[in-house]
Amino acid sequence: MMGRATKVISGTAISAKIRQQIKDNIDSVVALTQTTERPALGMIMVGDRQDSRLYVEAKGRACAEVGIRAENRFFAQSTTQAEILRQVHAFNADPTIDGILIQMPLPATIDEKAVVDAVLPTKDVDGLHPYNVGELAMRRRTPYFTACTPEGIVEMLDQEAVPIAGRVAVVLGRSDLVGNPVGMLLRKRHATVISCHSQTTQVLPFYPNCRLFFVLIRKYRSIDCTEFCMSRAFLWWLKSH
Description:
Layout: H1 11-33, E1 40-46, H2 50-66, E2 69-75, H3 81-93, E3 99-102, H4 112-118, H5 130-137, H6 148-159, E4 168-172, H7 179-188, E5 192-196, E6 212-215, H8 225-231, E7 234-237
Helix pairs in contact: 6-7
């Protein structure tokens, strides 16, 4: 957030609070059911990108912190699409695996769409399966999962009691993982959403009336923070993929 009276929202503090709640919920269910089974997340990574491995390792640590079992499957860059699909189907069929995460990007030799579509909607924790995207887009419908970054953005607004309903929101970015689902979540919360992207020639005319502004792309040629202050909009600045 930026403006005359700037307040920086601590995502770290909110995350810690939510993680503790998740841990408490899992511990309570385990105690009540007297089971040794805990929720499990199956993660698939292909290739040797260092940033992807760091992401997977961080997710594994987060799982361990709250009591979720992480089942990581690492594949070489040369792995075929058929092999990855076999692993996806194995996770789908495994009743002890509650969620599946495909670490993106996949090598160019693998069709990401085919892999995403192969994941059961009920285990699609990234919310990328067409079923979950469709449910998110429709009124009075609820997807099994929504992408975590958009969920996190809206949760942080809620934690700070920032009104959404009735407000004009400008969303800069339209990626499947962040920009599009943010817009859909805001519409479900009765915001008036204006979607801007790399082909939007003029963003400035939207400033005066907006009260929520989301920057969900790496770079943009004409963002001027001075204009944000003049518009008196509530601003959200997020560096994302």
